[in-house]
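FW: tagging you since you asked about this chain on Friday. Here's the raw sequence from the shared folder, copied in full. Didn't touch anything.
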Amino acid sequence: MEVLFIYLIVINSLCFLTFGYDKWQAKKNNTRISEFNLLLLTGIGGTIGGLIGMNFFKHKTNKFSFILSFYAIAILQIVLLYFGIQAFKS
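HL: got it, structure written out here
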């Protein structure tokens, strides 16, 4: 359980920082982080860091397709977490 907790701290921190870096690169018109990679980080556990990063840096908050994909991943994770908890209760 401790390893999972450390993993989630690391991946969420990385996701938050990646959103910030991408926003910084966007302001400078430099090479960006792909939306696929931002969503991949979200999908492998960085949802909270991504959500905080999006709101803190005001990044990708107006792009509907990205928001839709982001929240679809978040909902899928919540559903999987729910069923995972139910499986361990039995």
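FW: The radius of gyration is 14 Å.
HL: agreed, and The helical segments are 2-27, 35-57, 64-89.
FW: great, closing this out.
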